[in-house]
Each structure stands twice: as structure tokens, then as C-alpha cells.
Design goal:
The chain is mostly helical and 93 residues long. It has 3 helices and no strands. It has one domain. The longest helix has 16 residues.
Length: 93
């Protein structure tokens, strides 16, 4: 299992790594020789819009929030990204 850095992500490099990992996970939702389903297509389109900016701080290119934005986290949840989502990881006690 891939370890996800503490959210929100501290720098642009961590944000890009999280985005690539999530995009790869969405791409692997289907098996070889299967057509792309509507669910996978829509999740991929959301990730195409809500990606970290190329330069500077880790911010979403579409909505300007700290990356990962709420839309990206919802996409990870809907795609069932296999990571441990706990409040402790988010810095809450």
C-alpha cells in the first residue's frame, strides 16, 4: 500500500505525486480489453480539471484551494483509493 503524505500536502512535488497516484488508480479500475465505463470516464475528467498547479505552492489549478481540494478528495473516495483515511492522519486529534 502506498503511503500518502499528511494532508494538506506541503509542497508541489507531494501534490503531483498524489495526483499521479490517484490518476493511475482510476486508470486501473477496468481490466484489459474492457471498454472504459462512464464512472471511470467521469472520474478521469474530474482529475483532468482538478490537478495541482505546475509552479509554486500546492494549489488546485481549477478551484485555487490547497491541493488536494475537496473535489479531488471526493474523487479519491468514490474511486475507492486504498489508503487509510483517518482524522489522525489529517492532523486532528
Amino acid at each position: 500500500m502506498t503511503q500518502v503524505p499528511v494532508l494538506p500536502l506541503a509542497d508541489a512535488e507531494s501534490a503531483m505525486r498524489f495526483h499521479r497516484m490517484l490518476t493511475l488508480h482510476v486508470a486501473r479500475l477496468k481490466h484489459r480489453a474492457e471498454p472504459v465505463g462512464l464512472h471511470q470516464f467521469l472520474l478521469g475528467q474530474v482529475l483532468g480539471l482538478h490537478h495541482p498547479e505546475r509552479e509554486g505552492a500546492a494549489q488546485c489549478a481549477d478551484c485555487g484551494q490547497r491541493y488536494p481540494c475537496g473535489t479531488t478528495l471526493l474523487t479519491a473516495l468514490l474511486a475507492r483509493l486504498p489508503v487509510r483515511w483517518t482524522r489522525r492522519r489529517w492532523g486532528e486529534r
